[in-house]
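Work Package 4 report. The design task specified in the project plan requires that, given a folded chain encoded as structure tokens, an amino acid be chosen for each position. We show below one input record used in the internal validation round.
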């Protein structure tokens, strides 16, 4: 275990500084960075292939080049490639990271790869597979139960990256060791292991760590002989002084410059002023400094991949959009921040990309209710587990989506209190098909009227996003504590996974085709969100929860933005592809639908509304991400 003190240098560090340019594109000496021996600055932008439709990869890469950048950096989310342990990691289609890297190279840019295994990125579980964090292992540590699994993943991933390094004629010039480990722990043996795992699997280009610019974080995450980078939103001069004191021979590299911020459901839409962002960027690149703009283009948390945070209070799920107030907007639009940053970066060539891509004309479409909520969900084939207590997501091998729990307790006549003692994260509760309301950690109790008969008690539990940052990574989901009627535990449960993210078109169609019940089960209670926001009361006479569809005719596919006025919360599929979650508590109002998801002719939009269906689908030609609020906490 190595402690790095201020102004610490080692013979290893010197050796890296003068590495043979024939085997490493990037080297450093005397506080300067070189590319094949020529003075160089990394001007990078974060662009995540997993947040951009593959049909738009090249378009977005070109926009980064237009911004004046010479490098693209991307994380690699392990859980995106290997959501199930019993299946080999996938590297095809949307997961074809090799194709993405080659495309960046074809556009004349370098690539920085950040393979984690932990990535944060406001991505579910910080990129770690839930099948791994379901075990009793110490994640992000030298626990052999963790490192052995990471080693097997790296065996699959890293040879693909290694073959695309600059020393092999490819565009990869640097690889990050873990990710901001110093803000998490102090297991230096694990960080050493991670660096060794990269090297022994063929990574020969520049290795670097990235941590916040404090003594505590740098002590926890840095390694001797490995370039130290920092992550920050403001005060680059202070960070430069700190790094110079600790690593006087190393160049200044900001691996993440937070020029915007992400959003949580029920909170504000965060923006960062152009002047503030540009002022910090100018300070970073001064005197030869290198930077990666996080995010240069944020993209979208398609499906149910959005993460959540709980390090400063109750669970805060991340919204579907990952626009992040980046210089290149979620739909690829070039913002005022883009042009101001372009000037700082010294880009003068004519733009190759249009400022905006074409969109479909605005229109309103009827949203036709097809199947009630429970009827539709029951119609989708799924194995059921029977046990005395409800099965958790982890016990069912379910990463995201929902679980439908069913029990048949006898409830004495009179008024009772139903309590979900530990629900993660939100549950709709039904008695004999009638919705009693919503339970969450802030409001775990609901009234229950008994008649002395057996009641069909159904609890639909929704995972709102796995924690992506801090000690809460890996926390389990579902009904984790007993369900009580007054003080008595309800036992004998059937637990059925609702694997929304894994549904095929056929499974989605089965839910839609189930049809309404004779007496529609509808919500009729005021609901409270995990974020402590509330939705309006609903009435069974005018509303339906469940499956609905809209038909959209398209002559020429183009981008569009979907809104569901009057609907409460749920999920949207476009031609069988799960676009993401919507929620009336905002701030996000519209869901971005990229053109490649549509085709000429008839297109089907399917909605699974969990509480109240509005009856209308709107196509808009502009995004609506909520009233903006300047976000300064992380910057000033």
């Amino acid at each position: 275990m190595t402690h790095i003190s201020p102004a610490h240098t080692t013979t290893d560090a010197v050796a890296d500084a003068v590495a043979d340019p024939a085997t490493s594109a990037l080297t450093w000496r005397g506080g300067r960075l070189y590319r094949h021996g020529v003075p160089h600055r990394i001007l990078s932008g974060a662009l995540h292939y997993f947040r951009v439709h593959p049909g738009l990869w090249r378009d977005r890469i070109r926009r980064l080049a237009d911004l004046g950048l010479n490098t693209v950096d991307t994380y690699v989310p392990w859980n995106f490639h290997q959501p199930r342990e019993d299946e080999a990691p996938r590297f095809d289609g949307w997961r074809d990271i090799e194709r993405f890297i080659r495309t960046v190279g074809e556009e004349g840019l370098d690539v920085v790869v950040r393979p984690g295994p932990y990535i944060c990125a406001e991505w579910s579980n910080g990129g770690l597979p839930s099948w791994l964090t379901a075990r009793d292992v110490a994640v992000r540590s030298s626990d052999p139960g963790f490192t052995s699994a990471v080693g097997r993943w790296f065996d699959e991933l890293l040879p693909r990256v290694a073959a695309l390094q600059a020393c092999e004629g490819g565009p990869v010039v640097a690889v990050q060791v873990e990710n901001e480990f110093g803000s998490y722990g102090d297991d230096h043996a694990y960080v050493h292991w991670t660096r060794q795992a990269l090297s022994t699997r063929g990574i020969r280009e520049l290795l670097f760590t990235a941590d916040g610019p404090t003594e505590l974080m740098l002590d926890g995450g840095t390694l001797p002989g490995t370039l130290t980078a920092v992550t920050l939103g403001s005060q680059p001069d202070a960070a430069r002084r700190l790094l110079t004191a600790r690593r006087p021979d190393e160049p200044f590299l900001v691996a993440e410059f937070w020029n915007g911020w992400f959003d949580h459901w029920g909170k504000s839409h965060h923006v960062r002023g152009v002047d503030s962002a540009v002022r910090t960027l100018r300070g970073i690149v001064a005197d030869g400094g290198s930077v990666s703009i996080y995010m240069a283009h944020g993209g979208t948390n398609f499906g149910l991949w959005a993460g959540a945070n709980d390090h400063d209070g109750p669970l805060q799920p991340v919204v579907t959009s990952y626009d992040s107030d980046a210089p290149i907007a979620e739909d690829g639009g070039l913002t005022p921040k883009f042009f101001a940053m372009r000037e700082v970066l010294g880009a003068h060539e004519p733009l190759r990309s249009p400022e905006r891509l074409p969109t479909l004309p605005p229109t309103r479409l009827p949203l036709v209710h097809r199947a009630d909520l429970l009827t539709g969900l029951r119609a989708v084939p799924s194995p059921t587990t029977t046990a005395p207590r409800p099965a958790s997501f982890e016990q069912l091998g379910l990463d995201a989506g929902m679980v439908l729990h069913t029990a048949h307790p006898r409830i004495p006549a009179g008024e009772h209190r139903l309590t979900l003692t530990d629900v993660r994260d939100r549950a709709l509760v039904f008695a004999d098909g009638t919705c009693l309301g919503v339970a969450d950690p802030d409001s775990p109790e609901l009234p229950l009227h008994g008649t002395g008969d057996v009641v069909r008690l159904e609890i639909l539990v929704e995972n709102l996003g796995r924690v992506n940052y801090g000690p809460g990574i890996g926390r389990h989901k579902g009904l984790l504590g007993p369900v009580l009627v007054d003080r008595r535990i309800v036992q004998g449960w059937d637990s059925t996974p609702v694997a929304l993210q894994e549904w095929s078109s056929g499974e989605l169609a089965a839910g839609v085709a189930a049809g309404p019940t004779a007496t529609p089960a509808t919500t009729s209670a005021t609901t409270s969100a995990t974020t402590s926001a509330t939705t309006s009361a609903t009435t069974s006479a005018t509303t339906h929860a469940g499956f609905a569809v809209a038909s959209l005719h398209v002559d020429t596919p183009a981008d569009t933005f979907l809104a569901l006025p009057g609907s409460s919360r749920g999920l949207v599929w476009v031609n069988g592809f799960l676009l993401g979650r919507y929620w009336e508590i905002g701030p996000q109002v519209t869901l971005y639908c990229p053109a490649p998801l549509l085709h000429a002719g008839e297109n089907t939009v399917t909605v699974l509304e969990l509480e109240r269906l509005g009856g209308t689908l709107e196509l808009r030609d502009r995004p609506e991400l909520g009233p903006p609020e300047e976000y300064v906490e992380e910057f000033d």
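The radius of gyration is 25 Å. Validation will be extended to a larger panel in the next phase.
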